[in-house]
Design brief:
Blueprint lengths: L28 H17 L2 H54 L2 H27 L9
């Protein structure tokens, strides 16, 4: 059994297409006007008059900024000093109130009692160190 196969051969011819080149639009009145406007703007931008005006504005802005900065710094400093003074006054008043309201006799007794307890504990520890250990004698 031999099978003979006939293959069909299809040939596709290669066509040479020229590369795609987009059409170049012709300059219009609008394009020409845009170019003229851009050229005029560049000429004005590069002019000495514009450079002098810009320099003058920068100097004026710097002077105004310096004055404003100095004034605002002074105001901030004054406010900070006032706030610190007010806080110090409030703390002083709170301390005076606490001193007036404290029962110093009770405080003295309590501190003395705590000190005596601590001293007692320390003396007890010292006594334990100096107490001789009992030894049992063998008879």
């Amino acid at each position: 059994m031999s099978e003979e196969r006939d293959y069909l051969k299809i040939e596709i011819p290669v066509e040479e297409d020229p590369p795609f080149v987009p059409e170049q639009p012709q300059p219009t009145v609008v394009d020409t006007a845009k170019k003229q406007a851009a050229g005029a703007a560049k000429q004005v931008w590069d002019s000495d008059l514009r450079k002098k005006a810009t320099k003058g504005m920068k100097r004026g802005a710097a002077a105004v900024a310096g004055t404003v900065a100095a004034k605002s710094q002074k105001v901030v400093q004054e406010r900070m000093v006032k706030a610190a003074e007010e806080q110090a006054r409030q703390q002083t008043e709170a301390l005076k109130t606490k001193i007036r309201e404290t029962d110093w006799q009770h405080e003295a007794k309590q501190v003395t009692a705590n000190g005596l307890r601590w001293l007692s504990t320390q003396l007890s520890k010292l006594a334990e160190r100096f107490t001789p250990k009992e030894t049992t004698q063998e008879e």
